[in-house]
From TrEMBL, chain A:
Its main location: membrane. Keywords: Membrane, Transmembrane, Transmembrane helix. It holds the Pfam family COX3. The chain crosses the membrane at residues 30-54, 66-89, 101-120, 191-219, 239-258. The lineage of its organism: Bacteria, Pseudomonadati, Spirochaetota, Spirochaetia, Leptospirales. This is Cytochrome c oxidase subunit 3 family protein. It comes from the Bacteria. It comes from Leptospira selangorensis. Gene3D superfamilies: Cytochrome c oxidase, subunit III, four-helix bundle. Belongs to the cytochrome c oxidase subunit 3 family. InterPro entries: Cyt_c/ubiquinol_Oxase_su3, Cyt_c_oxidase-like_su3, Cyt_c_oxidase_su3-like_sf, Cyt_c_oxidase_su3_a-hlx. The keyword Transport does not apply.
From TrEMBL, chain B:
It is found in: Cell membrane; Membrane. The keyword Ribonucleoprotein does not apply. Pathway: Energy metabolism; oxidative phosphorylation. This is Cytochrome c oxidase subunit 1. Its EC number is 7.1.1.9. The chain crosses the membrane at residues 29-51, 71-99, 111-130, 150-175, 195-219, 239-263, 275-296, 308-332, 344-367, 379-403, 423-444, 464-485.
């Protein structure tokens, strides 16, 4: 389709009238694709709102479990990365190759920071037993009749210890202990984490995909395949990245703050 | 002839040149080969399902095997044949030519869509050997999520990928229609087939993502037990149905709108008249696409949704009848006092109108909440959707095949073969599905392995009809092979069509047009 060996020698594909024509068409295609992404997340948002209105207490108890600090940190990181991505596009358009490379590299670094923070959030959740749906229940104990949640089992263990010991042995501080107690008292709480893991998980996959795409255009910049004459891939990837950020801007308050 | 003409078929040679082609015409042919193979497979399952129902109780297989065959029949036919069918095969071939373009906007994406269909089909098909699925094509929870085996996961994953193929094709067609029209080809001069494909593309882009997320949630439900559809965790299995039908009702228009586009072309060409009410036909496609998003609840009248929702969905559903009727009346007005030629494609077009009308009218029965309580999940519904989907889409597909065959291959499809095929398919179709209306009304439930002895005669009639349909399609296939081997040279415009594809050689040259055409009038200027 598009052949661009170096920025000066870009030829538009044979079925377009001009480079401008090709650019306009590609841009429309990218926008349509982004619409499908938003619609796909739209399904999740609809499901979330329905259950949130049905069981406010479940979502309240669940969101108390999440670390607003880490969520906010990630929000800032993504917002900043949107800024550096926009800068990157601008530098490519103006032919400022080195600056563009730095801006894109910083954007990838932000994506990496985001994923690392997510990794710590997830592993901590698994550690304290807040996992989605059926995994919230412990196998061994459920055999004995009543179903016991992992959170319940952890709290039972914690109650046998003094506050200091609890923090030392189980890595549960006082506020966390309170949150888990609240969770334990709430019927159907795993539902919230079903949404949490699916929504943030699919978003996380998009962050990874976005990082790979940015890396791909970064290589193009390094190899001089894009520049002031031809920057469609950079702009397209940039738009994708902004949508990924935008979705997080909605996810953060929904999951972490609406309690 | 001394020197062979240079065209898209001999532009490059070898299987590899096909598998890597970026030419929309070749990609159309690759879709044809692939989708017809799926159709064959789905058809074999259909014949087996009907054969099992020849007698009450066990005829050939166990209930388990029956459930699986029914599932594969439905899933293959819907997701791999009727949804991609006309747009992917004929849309790919004719859409760019009809608007005077050299190709679709994104040729590589086009090839990728084909590969995605192949990969999706392979994953879905692999479950035939790994772990058969028995959920029915709708994958309703909680059966699919909690009860049945893990085969649902690859099955649904395959459909998810096929959905992507559909989205990308739609996206490509929208941009192509917006950006690649030849000079003078305003939106109000594009052929009605293009209008239909354009409206379909909008549906593909807007509805399919919802299917995608639904299927992902089903996978998440099955692997992680996230609880969104599981009442034990506070979820609700009916939410799955809402999501599913939010896609799948628009999807029935993804299936039928392209067929309506084909019928508009056929009616204009074979009546040799200016199409009556071009604008009305064109914009009714958009209207159908729009309304189709608001009616999904008619699949759930008996799911316990509120009475108010039922009434509302019933009302909006009936509204779809308006743009549909507009189309039908305009076709008939076009035929009125036209010099109609009853060639095979026109027979299929008339067959379409006949069967689709029956399908549509029975839809109105089903859309009346009171009657749906009687008919829901009976054979009446089976008959209804086969009348619209098979009687509609497959009739149009056969008509399109014979109509554009000369353009695609340069050879004429034997009209006699086409007519014989039509007789078998049309009569067989009615013999198969009309009794099912009666069976449904008598209370025979759908998706059942067994039935009461009183239903035997009508079921046997239905099974007998399925053999007629099968024969009809085999004759149609024979026609393709015969025409390829022995068909007469077609010439540029054997049927006197007026749209742009008939102004270029058959088969078309690699870049469609020697010189970009410039349009000065509308598409159907007969008299
Ligand atoms: C345009 C072509 C149409 C197609 C391809 C189509 C297809 C289908 C399919 C596949 C089903 C069965 C779904 C299942 O497996 O549960 C169905 C059911 C239904 N259709 Fe249609 N349909 C069409 C037009 C219409 C129209 C025009 C109406 C109403 C005016 C209508 C009303 C209904 C209703 C109410 C049901 C649900 C019946 C029940 O399950 O009780 N359909 N249709
Ligand atoms: Cu429907």
């Amino acid at each position: 389709m598009s052949t661009a060996n170096h920025t000066g020698g870009f030829h538009h594909a044979h079925h377009f009238d001009s480079a401008e024509h090709q650019y306009e068409s590609s841009k429309q295609g990218i926008w349509l694709f982004l619409v499908t992404e938003i619609l796909m997340f739209g399904g999740l948002f609809v499901g979330y709102s329905i259950y949130h209105s049905l069981y406010p207490q479940v979502f309240h108890a669940g969101s108390k479990q999440l670390s607003v600090v880490l969520g906010a940190l990630n929000t800032v990181v993504l917002l900043f990365s949107s800024f550096t991505m926009a800068l990157g596009i601008n530098y490519v358009q103006r032919g400022l190759r080195n600056k563009a490379i730095i801006a894109l590299a910083v954007t990838i670094a932000c994506a990496a920071i985001f994923m690392v923070v997510k990794f710590f959030e997830y592993t901590h959740k698994f550690h304290v037993g807040t996992v989605p749906g059926k995994y919230a229940y412990t196998e061994e104990l459920s055999a004995s009749g009543e179903k016991v949640t992992k959170v319940g089992a952890l709290l039972a263990e914690a109650n046998k210890l003094s506050v200091v010991e609890r923090e030392h042995k189980l890595h549960l501080d006082e506020t966390e202990y309170e949150h888990l107690t609240l969770l334990e008292k709430t019927k159907n709480w795993p539902l919230f984490f079903g949404f949490y893991f699916v929504m943030s998980g699919i978003h996380g996959l998009h962050v990874l995909a976005g990082a790979f795409l940015i890396f791909w255009v970064l290589l193009k910049v390094i190899k001089n395949q894009v520049g002031p004459e031809y920057f469609t891939p950079v702009e397209g990837v940039g738009l994708f990245w902004h949508v990924v950020d935008l979705i997080w801007i909605y996810l953060f308050p929904l999951l972490y703050l609406v309690g | 002839m001394a020197h062979e003409q240079h065209n898209y078929l001999n532009h490059q040679k070898g299987i590899w040149s096909w598998l890597t082609t970026l030419d929309h015409k070749r990609i159309g042919i690759m879709y044809f080969v692939a989708i017809m193979s799926f159709f064959f497979l789905g058809g074999v399952f259909a014949l087996l399902v009907r054969a099992e129902l020849f007698t009450p109780g066990k005829t050939l297989f166990s209930a388990d095997v029956y459930n699986r065959m029914m599932t594969y029949h439905g899933a293959i036919m819907v997701f791999m044949v009727i949804v991609p069918g006309i747009p992917a095969i004929f849309g790919n071939f004719v859409l760019p030519i009809m608007i005077g373009a050299k190709d679709v906007a994104f040729p590589r994406l086009n090839l990728m869509s084909w590969y995605m269909l192949m990969i999706g089909a392979a994953i879905t098909g692999s479950t035939l050997f790994l772990e058969n699925v028995d959920t029915g094509w709708t994958f309703y929870t909680p059966y699919s999520s909690i009860k049945t085996g893990l085969g649902v996961i690859p099955m649904v994953l395959g459909v998810f990928i096929i959905g992507f193929s559909s989205i990308l094709t739609g996206l490509n067609f929208i941009v192509t229609t917006h950006k690649l029209r030849a000079p003078g080809m305003t939106m109000n001069r594009i052929p009605l087939m293009v209008w239909a494909l354009y409206s379909t593309a909008i549906l593909q882009v807007l509805a399919t993502p919802v299917l995608a997320i639904t299927l992902l949630l089903l996978i998440a439900e099955k692997t992680l037990g996230v609880g969104i559809f599981d009442p034990q965790l506070g979820g609700d299995p009916v939410l799955f149905q809402h999501f599913f039908w939010f896609y799948s009702h628009p999807a029935v228009y993804i299936m039928i709108l392209p067929a309506m586009g084909v019928i508009s072309e056929l009616v204009a060409t074979y009546s040799r008249k200016v199409i009556f009410g071009y604008t009305a036909i064109a914009y009714s496609s958009l209207a159908i696409a729009g309304v189709s998003f608001l009616v999904w609840g008619h699949h759930m009248f008996v799911s316990g949704q509120s009475e108010f929702a039922g009434v509302l969905f019933s009302f909006i559903t009936m509204l779809v009848g308006v743009p549909t009727a507009i189309k039908l009346f305009n076709w008939i007005a076009t035929m009125y006092k036209g010099s109609i030629r009853l060639d095979a494609p026109m027979l299929f077009a008339i067959g379409f109108m006949f069967l689709f009308t029956i399908g549509g009218l029975t839809g109105v029965y089903l859309a009346s909440t009171g009657m749906d309580i009687h008919f829901h999940d009976t054979y009446f519904v089976v008959a209804h959707f086969h009348y619209v989907m098979v009687g509609g889409t497959l009739m149009a597909l056969m008509g399109a095949l014979i109509y554009w065959f000369p353009k695609v291959t340069g050879k004429i499809y034997s009209d006699l073969t086409g007519r014989i095929s039509w007789v078998f398919i049309f009569s067989g179709f009615n013999v198969t599905f009309f009794p099912q209306f009666i069976l449904g009304n008598m209370g025979m439930p759908r998706r059942y392995y067994d039935y009461l002895p009183t239903f035997t005669e009508l079921n046997q009639m239905s099974t007998f009809g399925s053999w007629l349909i099968g024969t009809g399609f085999l004759i149609g296939l024979f026609g393709v092979i015969y025409a390829l081997l022995k068909g007469k040279e077609a010439g540029n415009n054997p049927f006197g069509g007026k749209t742009l594809e008939w102004t270029i050689p058959s088969p078309p040259p690699h870049e469609n047009f020697e010189k970009t055409p410039v349009l000065t009038g509308g598409p159907y200027e007969y008299r």
